[in-house]
């Protein structure tokens, strides 16, 4: 038998996973991490998305190719122009208007035809057909694809079990919660059924159970598709939220596996720096600057890939950081995407004033790697779940500055449950009102920025307790991802589940024949 025959036989015996991520950086990045983890567990992976999204993770694709990793990156045509979306808008964060979000979500099913066309192509390399389909829960249309292949379909959830359980309870008790928040003088009420006192606002109730018929219809479609899934993967770890995991698993009545933090996947530094997309900064200069700072002295300020500050808020935030007197890294994407007129000119002048003490990154930053550096002691974050996990995994305390969707509930987890962060004090805003803001709007004044960050980085005895708690969570996160850890076992359980399902299917077919 030739070496090629041996290799082909080896591939035939390995499980093949088909991954379909949601098209937005915060969803794409952990799914890429999941793909590489599955390969590390001796699986084959097909990663299917659109041309624009593949181009954004080009460094990862090139590295996988150079390392001969058994990951196929498959390009699916997404006819955005044909359905009234602007050319190139193949990711949620690329949409020019929030008014297009629901339309974008509703046309995701257009990916089905190109995916099925690809799956019908005979495989010349000897890969077996997919044994399992893992998709983001927004891809409701994958139900039919999995059925046509006779394989299990697993849902990949980006948020925590805490958020997923809160979402479930809010949807279940929507009517009484709407009455309670309307009657409350401060617009908040307690969410019953949780071990910790968690308050929800009108924002959370409206966001997760909208009265808009079109949004409600879409959410209903998502829930029906999710109920038919064979299991759920969550980017979290047991030690972080054991009670919420158990309650969520009970509610779902199907397998739920914790497989994170996926950002801790072990890899070469140059690959990790390019995680998600190419960095907008010279990484050599960045890390030389960090190496010159004292341990735990630097504040990282970053608000993810989707939300934007107004020009007025950028100015207030900048002045607060300038007055604070501590070293900082500030990621300002508003400069490169041109959605905030005047930002580039102001930031250029600001950069001169803080030269040496502050570093400005215009665009995409290697956030996970920055947080790992010993010089970084605090993180001002929009509370996206990926960012929270990256901070928790590195033992860094957070100042929480949420904007929309799950971020306000994520803040409650960090501040009230995990006690590893301080709240900036942002008032909730309804999701689709973000775009209709006044460009002169300021949610946090410079004095508040200075006060909150100083409290985060100092804070006396309470601050030290937060830092100690964050360091302990960081240790637990790393242990969870190591061989034999809770998340390592979680992913192995996923593989075992799929393998068992495949054997049963093969035995049934043999018996039938």
UniProtKB/TrEMBL annotation:
Alphabetized UniProt keyword annotations: Transferase
SUPFAM superfamilies found in the cross-reference section: UDP-Glycosyltransferase/glycogen phosphorylase
GO molecular function, one term: UDP-glucosyltransferase activity
Entry-linked InterPro entries: UDP_glucos_trans
UniProt-listed CDD domains: GT1_Gtf-like
Domain of life: Eukaryota
Membership in a protein family: Belongs to the UDP-glycosyltransferase family.
Annotated protein name in UniProt: Glycosyltransferase
